[in-house]
Model the fold of this input.
Amino acid sequence: MQSRNITRSEELFQEAQSLLPGGVNSPVRAFRSVGSQPLFITRGEGAYVFDVDGNRYLDYVLSWGPLILGHANDAISRVICETAQKGTSFGAPSPLELELARRVMGFYPSMERIRFVNSGTEATMSAIRLARAYTNRDFIIKFEGCYHGHADIFLVQAGSGVATLGLPDSPGVPAATANLTLIAPYNDLEAVKKIFQKYPQQIAAIIVEPVAGNMGVVPPVEGFLEGLRKLTEENSALLIFDEVMTGFRVHCGGAQTLYNIKPDLTTLGKVIGGGVPVGAFGGRQEIMDLIAPAGPVYQAGTFSGNPLAMAAGIETLRILENPVFWEKLEARSKQLKEGVLSILRKKALHYQLQSVGSMFTLFFAENPVTNWATASLANREKYAQFFRNMLDYGVYLAPSQFEAGFLSSMHGEHEILLTLEAIEQSLV
Ligand code: KE4
Done:
């Protein structure tokens, strides 16, 4: 356990409150759900990050998933510098966009056409607009506990009743907007069937995290994704796989390859930008050709396809095209999972370690987590205490029970053993 001095982070957080709402630029970073003080990070190196007080942490947040090659990867840093020296943005087509598009399509052949944007939120909100235009319908279905970015249409909570009309989950979201989002429990095909029965020929699309990551890692139960594919086909609705997080995390080809389900549209982000802001949506050509200027569905962006993100993404996917990369990442992910399960058995703790590929969550829950209702039973205080203990052992986990942790290619055997030692000490 390291006696951590975080004085400078505390000073900066104090100052930040007078500049940024809540002192941060994205809520989960404020560490509110883990009762701790956010750390101000100055640099990353491989599997590690360093805070302003000079403390080193083994990083399992990895910027919420993008840094599958670890921090400050030499090849990525070099290509960003080289690209920047030729200009950072032109607001015009560049050859780099075509190369990244081809590389993404190599991993995701369901994406016959692709549009690059600058965040996962832009990707998902654009995919929904496109689905509504293609089907000429307004209602969408999402799942409780899934997060698709902060567009109004997604900031919706389940109301009462089975086919739950969405209710605003944030001030500022008009009821008229929220009412067009229908909510079902994750892994509950019967609930989805009932919604289609209640809203015949009115549902434009289902959007789903094909492996949920935003309530913690919750895999689809047998037949769930196949059932969604069947229901959307039977009801002439589109199936949108939000693979912003699962892309390159549950499998190099995402959940659509892992589970062999072909969605109509896919959204991506995070990994495909190599750590530089990016998002993408794509799918069947007949659908994507509705996007302006090919078609009438407006979608635009100053920095869409910008050279820095394209270059970093190209270099990242070039490295990810090597099968040896995946063998090593899978081996480390397996080593971590088996190590944690062994510790839980030794301590006779019945917590739930849920992982797919290189994303994982340790739920402080007595029973398997299959949806938001079961995830919400997890003991948040126990997770918060575990999180704080792990920080003291120099391991930086997601500052929320309801998030995923991630590995990178820089998490070697030594890092996994360090992590397991910290877990052994922190699970008290
Ligand atoms: P961004 O707009 O944050 O790039 O992507 C939104 C998004 C869309 N879809 C899925 C499945 C996502 O996980 C995300 C963003 N993930 C969160 C982590 N849970 C980003 C972290 C944050 O909001 O600070």
